[in-house]
Amino acid sequence: MEWEVVIGLEIHVQLNTQTKIFSAAPTAYGAAPNTQACAVDLALPGVLPVLNGQAVRKAIQFGLAVDATITDQSVFARKNYFYPDLPKGYQISQFELPIVANGKLEIEREDGSTKVVGITRAHLEEDAGKSLHEDFHGMTGIDLNRAGTPLIEIVSEPEMSSAKEAVAYMKKIHSIVQYLGISDGNMQEGSFRCDANVSVRREGETELGTRTETKNLNSFRFVERAINYEIERQIDVIESGGKIVQETRLYDPDDDSTRTMRTKEEANDYRYFPDPDLLPVKIDTELLQELQATLPELPDVKKQRFCDEFGLSQEDAIQLTSSRDLADYFEQAAAKTNGQAKLVANWVLGELSAALNQNSISVSESPIDTDRFTQLIMRIADGTISGKIAKEVFQDMWNSDKTADQIIGEKELQQISDIGELEAIVDQVIKDNPQQVEQYLSGKDKVFGFFVGKVMKETKGKANPRQVNELLKNKLV
Ligand code: ADP
Ligand code: MG
């Protein structure tokens, strides 16, 4: 019996406003506990929330980017529950009338096909504070710096059918919010996190199975692993005669499993109702038009343009456009070379990305700017150095301020362009290895590589491999 998997994601994105969604306290990350919480965030009696217009603009920008409807009059609602890091006793969120509804997003599957995933809604809300357990023995500390930080919660339709699809969807949302510049998308700092709803059903069944929700996944890898664990667990339970219980679960990265946090019976009844302290949010067409007109080129459009304009493969274009900074770097470098976009793409995705990853830095922090990078590409393109030597030059560039030409000059790395000089080396190698010559001439083709290796070694890698091959072929007869 085959199983079908159904996944819907709820993604929380922290908006990068200067101040909080309902107060003037700053939102910067990493300040000493409770130094960025004002009277509103502390819920002192008599305070009133004032909506941050920037948060509204950013939520609308997201809605426009996913072809959603922007609600003319959205409403803030109180979501009531008790928790020590929520001093008001309720979270201000949106319930019946979210600011963004009915969007859609295209994702690329592994086999190269695409799929459209529906976005049910995206609503504005405030984040809660943080409970600190580690530094307090037998007690809990409360840090309200994060309380009131603006979020959008993006809820998908239950339309993804594998962990890979869910990750592709999450990555697409991640790149969109960064292209829009509405969030830093920093997952380590919690600016981008995801709850994964998973259910399974037997193939052909039309009703959805009972789902579980695994909370607070803050990396793409965790999302993939948590979902795959959940799929297997649910199938196991059903196949051994059990029933899935609708519940909230927690993922444990240490052993890659999920465990029960609370079941439906324990679930809160939030008693949502419109917040009487806040007016409905009315969006006029002027604002919509302004935001629509200033929307940047988004990843899908950029990807297609890279394919059309630079002749890149879909795969390369997808990778290059996964981050706006990477796409910009590629495009700047490509513009400075003459028709070498493909080579630029290879080096951006190869050597440069590897070095960035190894040093855990982003492309905007790359020690090699596009000017120096482009010069290196041109030296490969015009045959001054081989790709292999170029990797050595790249490493030197990474660790210094020197240009490719400086390094090539200082270390005398130019390929040997004088064919006579190369010929002399080839002759010498043949003369010095009569035994191998005999083997080769008696039919041992593999020995050819030995000669190529010798010549490359003699020339310290500076010979043009194509020329070496030609010379050897002509002389070894
Ligand atoms: P809640 O308000 O309890 O979180 P929602 O109906 O808003 O519930 O759904 C939350 C998320 O769960 C959505 O992303 C939705 O697509 C997903 N979802 C709902 N039902 C299922 C199901 N049976 N299997 C998988 N995902 C589901
Ligand atoms: Mg939910």
- Biggest sheet character: 9 strands, mixed
- Give the strand order of the largest sheet, numbering strands 1, 2, ... along the chain: 2-6-7-10-1-11-12-13-14
Estimate the strand proportion.
15-25%
Name the average pLDDT: 94
List cofactors, ions and other ligands: adenosine-5'-diphosphate, magnesium ion
Task: Outline the secondary-structure elements.
Blueprint: E1 3-14, H1 39-42, H2 53-65, E2 69-70, E3 73-74, E4 76-80, E5 90-94, E6 100-108, E7 114-126, E8 130-132, E9 141-143, E10 150-156, H3 163-180, E11 192-202, E12 212-217, H4 220-239, E13 247-252, E14 257-263, E15 273-274, E16 281-282, H5 285-293, H6 299-310, H7 314-320, H8 324-336, H9 341-358, H10 370-381, H11 387-398, H12 404-410, H13 419-432, H14 434-441, H15 447-458, H16 465-475
Parallel strand pairs: 12-13
Antiparallel strand pairs: 1-10, 1-11, 2-6, 3-16, 4-5, 4-15, 6-7, 7-10, 8-9, 11-12, 13-14
Helix pairs in contact: 2-5, 3-4, 6-7, 8-9, 8-10, 10-11, 13-15, 13-16, 14-15, 15-16
The chain binds adenosine-5'-diphosphate and magnesium ion.
Magnesium ion (MG) binds at residues 10, 213.
